[in-house]
Amino acid sequence: MTIHILNPNSLVHVTDGIARAVAAIAAASAVPIKCHTLAEGPPGIETQAHVDGVVTPLLLQAKGLEVDASAFIIACFSDPGLAALREQSRRPVLGIAEAAILTAMTLGQRFGIISILSKSIPRHMRYLGAMGVLDRLAGDLPLELGVQALADEDQTFARLVAVGRALRDTRGAEVVILGCAGMTAFRARLETELGICVVEPCQAAAAMAVGRVALARAQ
After folding, report:
1. What is the total count of domains within the chain?
2. Which domain holds residue 212?
3. How far apart are CA 206 and CA 19, in angstroms?
4. What is the DSSP letter of 136?
């Protein structure tokens, strides 16, 4: 049995970054954790059209992995196809955005989100509204960098620090969430720089999936 992490974009280096981010969690897991790239996906999920467009191939990918799956994780901060995959699969299904938000609310009263682009924020607001947690949101601010641009580590980290400080100092965020699976490499450095908790969504979802597997065994 395996926990399958599904990266709905086609960037292998993003999938590799997710694998590195969850390596310590995988080492402690009772079942293997395997990361997958969706070849049919765009090179970054940045619009609602991208979100909607990956649902069908994502469901097909998950269907092919169902037999040996312990759980599925959708590794995009828009949680594309989350409800549909929960309907399709008999396994636990987690979205990294939902898992990160739930985790952040255990670490502080008010959380902030660092988004990739301004156009991502309305999508997040709809999702937070549906979850009923808008009163816990300190703010959602963008880097104004697309998914592929996140590969420039110096530029990305400088923007993460600036936006993270704004969330902390002007919005009152006690916890910051990295709002894209392409930001995995920066969590520890950013937490040190900001002096507050930083949640990396793939780690949050992987930890939650390991817990779900353990809970199922206990029951």
Report:
1. 2
2. 2-95+203-218
3. 10
4. G
